[in-house]
C-alpha cells in the first residue's frame, strides 16, 4: 500500500501539469478571440499622383526640379479601436528633373533638360492613429526595390544612360502622412516619403564623403496624394 503512494503522487503531479498547460492554451485562445472580435480587417486598391525629387549632396551641385508621375498598388489594414496597422505594396515612378550644362567654361555651352527615373516597387508599413472615425495620422517605414534607374535626355542628340551600375538596387526611409475617409468605403491619402538611403553607388574618391567634407549622396524624396477603396473582411465593429 505504501509503495503505491509515490506512484499516485507522480500521476497526480502529471495530471496537474497537463491541466495547467490546457488552461494556458484555453486562456490564450480566449484572449486571441477577444482581440480579434474587436478588430476590423480591410484590403483594397489605391492609386494617385506622385511629386518626386532627389536631394543631392553639395558636391554634385545639380539643380533638381520636381517630377510629376504616379503610383498604384494594394493595401491591407488591421484596425482595433483608434489604432491600426497598415501595409501596402506600391509601384512608384520616383526620380527628378534636371537642367544639365555641358562645357560651362567653353564659349558655347550646351544646356539640356533631363529626367532621372528611379522607378521602384515599395513595401510600406504604417501605424495609424484615428482622431475620429474619418481622420487618421500615419507614421511608418518603407523599403523599395529600384527596377531600373536611368537618365533620359530631352535632346535627341544625346543617348539615354542606364544608371544601374552607379545606383543602388534598394532604398529605404520613413513616411509621414494622413488619411481621410469619406463616401462609403472611399478614402483620400497623403504621404511624404523621406529617403534615408544614399542610392548613388558611384566611386567618388573611393567614398561618398571626401577629405574636404563634400557630400556626393543622392536621396529620394517624394509626396504621394491619392485615393483608395477598402473592402471590409470582418463584420465586427470596433
What key attributes describe this structure?
1 helix; 54% strand; single chain; eight-stranded antiparallel beta barrel; mainly beta; 2 domains; 238 residues; Porin
Instruction: Determine the number of helices (DSSP H or I, runs of at least 4 residues).
Output: 1
- Reported by name, the CATH topology of the largest domain is Porin
Query: In percent, how much strand structure appears in the residues?
Result: over 45%
Total number of distinct structural domains = 2
- Helix/strand-derived category reads mainly beta
Strand ordering within the main sheet: 1-3-4-5-6-9-10-11
Q: Rounded to an integer, what's the Rg over CA atoms?
A: 27 Å
What does this molecule look like?
It is elongated, with a radius of gyration of 27 Å. With 238 residues, the chain is mainly beta. The longest helix is centred in the N-terminal third of the chain and has 34 residues, at 4-37. The protein has two domains: 1-37; 40-232, Porin. The chain has one helix at 4-37, and strands at 39-56, 64-65, 67-80, 83-102, 110-130, 135-146, 150-153, 161-162, 170-181, 186-195, 218-229, 231-232. It has an eight-stranded antiparallel barrel. The chain contains one helix and twelve strands.
Amino acid at each position: 500500500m505504501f509503495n503505491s503512494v509515490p506512484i499516485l503522487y507522480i500521476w497526480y503531479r502529471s495530471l496537474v501539469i497537463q491541466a495547467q498547460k490546457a488552461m494556458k492554451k484555453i486562456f490564450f485562445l480566449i484572449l486571441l478571440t477577444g482581440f480579434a472580435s474587436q478588430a476590423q480587417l480591410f484590403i483594397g486598391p489605391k492609386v494617385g499622383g506622385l511629386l518626386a525629387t532627389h536631394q543631392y549632396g553639395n558636391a554634385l551641385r545639380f539643380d533638381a526640379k520636381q517630377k510629376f508621375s504616379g503610383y498604384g498598388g494594394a493595401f491591407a489594414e488591421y484596425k482595433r479601436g483608434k489604432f491600426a496597422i497598415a501595409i501596402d505594396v506600391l509601384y512608384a515612378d520616383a526620380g527628378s528633373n534636371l537642367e544639365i550644362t555641358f562645357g560651362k567654361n567653353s564659349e558655347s555651352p550646351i544646356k539640356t533638360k533631363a529626367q532621372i527615373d528611379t522607378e521602384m516597387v515599395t513595401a510600406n508599413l504604417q501605424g495609424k492613429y484615428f482622431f475620429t472615425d474619418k481622420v487618421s495620422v500615419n507614421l511608418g517605414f518603407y523599403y523599395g526595390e529600384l527596377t531600373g534607374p536611368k537618365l533620359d535626355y530631352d535632346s535627341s542628340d544625346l543617348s539615354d544612360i542606364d544608371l544601374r551600375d552607379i545606383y543602388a538596387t534598394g532604398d529605404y526611409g520613413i513616411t509621414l502622412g494622413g488619411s481621410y475617409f469619406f463616401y462609403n468605403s472611399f478614402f483620400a491619402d497623403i504621404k511624404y516619403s523621406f529617403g534615408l538611403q544614399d542610392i548613388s553607388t558611384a566611386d567618388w574618391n573611393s567614398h561618398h564623403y571626401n577629405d574636404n567634407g563634400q557630400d556626393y549622396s543622392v536621396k529620394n524624396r517624394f509626396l504621394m496624394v491619392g485615393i483608395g477603396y477598402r473592402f471590409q473582411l470582418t463584420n465586427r465593429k470596433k
